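Below is a filled-in request sheet from our internal design queue. Each sheet records the structural input a requester submitted and the sequence that came back. We keep these sheets so that new team members can see what a complete request looks like end to end.

REQUESTER: design group, bay 2
PRIORITY: normal
MODE: inverse folding
CHAIN LENGTH: 441
BACKBONE (tokenized):
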């Protein structure tokens, strides 16, 4: 039996599909080269913005034709499944199963029921979350791995559908997480990224350890070289957590800290729980604690009621912080969210124009920052061949920049010191430094 997966969305979704692949391999399935070659096709969905949902429905149009002329089992998983629940069958009556975000562990059962009983399994329960959270994809043959430390979100930012599709916050026990990371490190994983919608509210209200304490424990694990985490919310970024940077040697000097808007009026309407000044204060503290830290962020333009001045505040914040990278989006009204009912929608053309302006500003900053690294030495975890040129090799710096360089296969999996010879818009070019001449031994 062969399976094929189409995945949309964030790292959480990517990681959920790693879990699905693992469950299917254990059950004897093999990966197919394409949907047309598969016995089972799974589409994992995202609904954070309308565009992702539209792409999913147009893919389903194509898969419907494949289904009509074959015996392929077709399943939908993830956020759209959770959002639509049973109603998904009104839109996609031809699918064989639909599993919500907390039902990853039921994938093999859903396929079996579809094949042997010709029945559709639809499961969207939150009670599945414990089992779902504990599925481990294993780390065999990988250098980097995600590790889920918590799921869900209690923040209810007014624009965001995530709390409705990923449910309430639930943290995994620290002892389970440590055990998983130890297993991964023993299996050859050198870098872990701790995952959660809001990792820095890990264990809020529990007497298990705090997020900063969890990082300390992971930092002590032998064989592991690097730790990252994503995503953090500014309102939960504690001084304790800030002090971890530069102090815990395995914690990479990098943080993704979405600010969403530079206007306090819009931040209030978004229900973000901080002001632009407070956000800038956090950036200052992070840089004071760890001067080389790379800071990236998300932001939304064209939120309902955003006026020219509000957008200028966002632009000013971007210019002041000089982020290492920025993911910016046009506001997209989402079902069930409070912002979808707000008046004063910003016309699409204006929002697009603002987005383009902001992206142009950031592009210059990113390139300048990358060029500013020319001549410096960076530590790179070599991951394999470069995407841009297969004869070359690529890896990431501790600040999460991609570096391409001329190397050799035996370097894959190791940490190398490279000299940055050129900075580009999205990557760096590195070189293995020549040994100094004239040494005595
Ligand atoms: N939990 C993370 C990520 C949430 S979704 C966090 O809080 O940062 C990733 C990003 O998508 C958000 O940071 C936000 O910038 C963007 N986003 C979420 N909902 C959106 C919407 N309705 N319209 C446009 N962008 C949105
Ligand atoms: Fe969405 Fe806000 Fe939760 Fe992030 S913190 S997932 S933006 S509700």
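RETURNED SEQUENCE:
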């Amino acid at each position: 039996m062969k399976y094929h997966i189409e995945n949309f969305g964030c790292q959480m979704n990517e990681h959920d599909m790693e879990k699905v692949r693992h469950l299917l391999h254990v059950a004897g399935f093999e990966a197919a080269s394409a949907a047309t070659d598969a016995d089972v096709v799974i589409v994992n969905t995202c609904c954070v913005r309308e565009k992702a949902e539209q792409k999913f429905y147009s893919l389903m149009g194509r898969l419907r034709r494949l289904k009509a002329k074959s015996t392929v089992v077709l399943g939908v998983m993830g956020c759209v499944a959770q959002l639509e629940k049973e109603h998904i069958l009104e839109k996609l009556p031809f699918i064989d199963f639909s599993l919500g975000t907390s039902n990853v562990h039921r994938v093999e059962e859903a396929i079996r029921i579809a094949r042997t009983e010709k029945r559709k399994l639809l499961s969207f329960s939150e009670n599945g979350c414990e089992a779902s959270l504990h599925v481990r994809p294993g780390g065999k043959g990988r250098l980097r791995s995600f590790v889920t430390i918590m799921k869900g979100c209690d923040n209810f930012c007014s624009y965001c559908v995530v709390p409705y599709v990923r449910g309430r916050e639930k943290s995994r026990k620290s002892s389970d997480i440590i055990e998983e990371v130890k297993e991964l490190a023993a299996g050859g994983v050198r870098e872990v990224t701790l995952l959660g919608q809001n990792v820095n509210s890990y264990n809020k209200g529990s007497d298990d350890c705090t997020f900063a304490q969890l990082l300390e424990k992971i930092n002590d694990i032998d064989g592991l070289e690097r730790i990252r985490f994503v995503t953090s919310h500014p309102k939960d970024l504690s001084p304790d957590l800030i002090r971890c940077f530069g102090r815990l040697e395995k914690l990479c000097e990098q943080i993704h800290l979405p600010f969403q808007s530079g206007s306090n009026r819009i931040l209030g309407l978004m229900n973000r729980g901080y002001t632009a000044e407070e956000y800038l204060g956090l950036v200052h503290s992070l840089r004071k604690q760890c001067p080389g830290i790379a800071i990236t962020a998300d932001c939304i333009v064209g939120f309902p009621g955003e006026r020219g001045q509000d957008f200028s505040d966002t632009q000013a914040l971007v210019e002041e912080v000089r982020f290492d990278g920025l993911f910016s989006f046009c506001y997209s009204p989402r079902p069930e969210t409070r912002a979808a009912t707000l008046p004063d929608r910003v016309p699409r053309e204006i929002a697009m124009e603002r987005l383009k302006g902001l992206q142009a500003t950031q592009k210059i900053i990113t390139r300048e920052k990358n060029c500013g690294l020319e001549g410096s030495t960076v530590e790179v975890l070599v991951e394999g061949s470069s995407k841009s040129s297969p004869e070359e090799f690529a890896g990431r710096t501790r600040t999460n920049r991609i570096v391409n360089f001329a190397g050799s296969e035996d370097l894959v999996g190791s940490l190398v010191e490279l000299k940055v010879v050129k900075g580009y818009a999205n990557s760096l070019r590195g070189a293995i430094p020549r040994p100094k001449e004239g040494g005595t031994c």
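SHEET NOTES:
- The radius of gyration is 23 Å.
- The chain has three domains: 2-123, 140-371, 377-431.
FILED BY: M.R.
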